[in-house]
Amino acid sequence: MAYKRLISRRHIMRLGLATLSGIGVVLGAKKIYPRQQISSFSNQEKNLRRDFTVSGKTPLRNRAASKGLIYGAAGNYPALSSDEAFKKRFAQECGILVPENELKWDTLRPTPYIFDFSKGDWLAQFAQRNNMLFRGHNLVWNQFMPEWFKEVVNRQNAEKFLVEHITTVTKHYVGQMHSWDVVNEGIDPNHGNPDGLANSPWLDFLGADYIELAFRVAAQSDPKALLVYNEGGLKYDTPEHEARRTAVLKLLEHLKSRGTPIHALGMESHILAHETRFNPKKLRTFLSDVASLGLKIMITELDVIDQKLPADPTLRDRIVAGAYQDFLSVVLDEKATIAVLTWGLSDRYTWISRFNSRSDAATVRPLPLDSDFKPKLGWNAIASSFDKAPKR
Ligand code: XIL
Predict the structure, then answer these.
(1) Catalytic positions, written as ranges
(2) 268 CB under 6 A from ligand 1?
(3) How far is ligand 1, taken at its centre, from the CA of residue 100, in Å?
(4) Integer Cα distance of 371 and 350 in angstroms
(5) What integer pLDDT is reported at residue 12 of this predicted model?
(6) Nearest Cα residue to atom 12 of ligand 1
(7) Which pLDDT value is given to residue 45?
(8) Which end of the chain is least crowded, N or C, by CB within 10 Å?
(9) Which ligand 1 atom is the nearest neighbour of the CA of 344?
(10) Which atom of ligand 1 is nearest to the CA of 137?
(11) Which domains does the chain show, CATH number per domain?
């Protein structure tokens, strides 16, 4: 699948398992880990000393709300409609729900003429009943397109399909959406197109202006929703992420200069726990640059991929929590950041188990709650980041 290739390329790690000094390090009070196990992970020494204590059990949605922030997560129909305990925990912790797959083209449009909103509607109702905001993901992307698309859509009818799709879907949920990811992952400098635009049938058929068109059409049928450009691969101090930051800024500037109704940048934020090339200053500057265009920022798909971490779950949780804290302290420092959504809530239901599984087959632990819906150190890290965040 194209996406899988994209992920593995994007997420290629250059992990130098360097120091083999064999000196042990104390973790918590009890356990000694050989130094080589942790030597290559970001902030390892700091992580081991870090205090992730938080006061009380106040859910993340309330901690965020008290700072004028929104916290929530992606949830999918199969999990939420079948698991009562999960449903309950989800509603406790989350102030916003985004359907993980249910509003993508391939789920919504089994044939060129039918829109199937049943799963999306179920999730919308679940959000409403539990006093959660609801957000849409996504209207335009080059992936998770239905099989029929290639056969049916061409240069002549592409605009009609794009406009009809956006109009039908946004009108269906009008008044219910906090925000819409109007265009998803429209930039990929690796594809070699002008302005770093990602390969896409929309680019082929309609040219670069498909992005502006999408925002204008969405604004027409849902003038109240926050319209978001959502992108991944923006956070590291690597040539690839630098190129993407530059291209995204250029795109946002262009859209703003043309008066396009765009209101926020969505930063996906699938963090690699083993990645050391995290430069808070560079990320902070990027966030200021986005904010200075008059745009809000939403952290839309946060999780911490523990694929390459050592096996021990206690150590893994500690490194994952450190990564959450490092990232959130930078993004929440920017007052234009209005929301944080994790891509899932519990390790029981995470795409990482399929897309970034571990070679030792151990359960992946990328999310705030474990498989039994108990808070992990990552939950504490997110909670304390909200507690420390400046008020909006
Ligand atoms: C992922 C879902 O989590 C998976 O369940 C699905 O199989 C593939 O898509 N960027 C995005 C999301 O914008 O839509 C992707 O979601 C994860 C990466």
Answers:
(1) 301
(2) yes
(3) 7
(4) 10
(5) 31
(6) 100
(7) 65
(8) N
(9) 3
(10) 14
(11) 59-388 (3.20.20.80)
pTM: 0.91
Give the per-residue pLDDT at 29. Answer: 34
Q: Would you mind telling me the total number of residues written for the chain in this entry?
A: 392
User: Ligand 1: which of 106, 351, 352 to mutate, judged by most atoms within 8 Å of the beta carbon?
Assistant: 351
pLDDT score at 24: 29
Test site for ligand 1: of 355, 356, 357, 367, most ligand atoms within 8 A of the Cβ: 355
**Looking at this protein, which amino acid is placed at residue 68?**
G
Nearest ligand 1 atom to the CA of 181 is 13
**CB of 37 closer than 6 A to ligand 1?**
no
pLDDT given for residue 30 in this prediction: 37
What is the rounded average pLDDT for all residues in the chain?
A: 91
Q: Residue 127 is encoded by which pair of tokens?
A: 């959000």
133-140/337-342 β-pairing: unpaired
The pLDDT assigned to 43 comes to 58
Would the CB of 231 count as within 6 Å of ligand 1? Answer: no
Residue found by looking up tokens 């992307």 in the block:
141
Flag residues of the chain having pLDDT under 70. Answer: 1-46
- Cβ neighbours of residue 225 under 8 Å, at least 6 residues apart? 136, 170, 177, 178, 179, 180, 218
pLDDT of residue 47: 73
Helix (H/G/I), strand (E/B), else coil: 99 = strand
Classify each residue of 170-203 as buried b or exposed e, where b means 16 or more C-beta atoms within 10 Å of its C-beta. Answer: bebbeebbbbbbbbbbbbbbbeebeebbbebbbb
CB distance 370 to ligand 1 below 6 Å: no
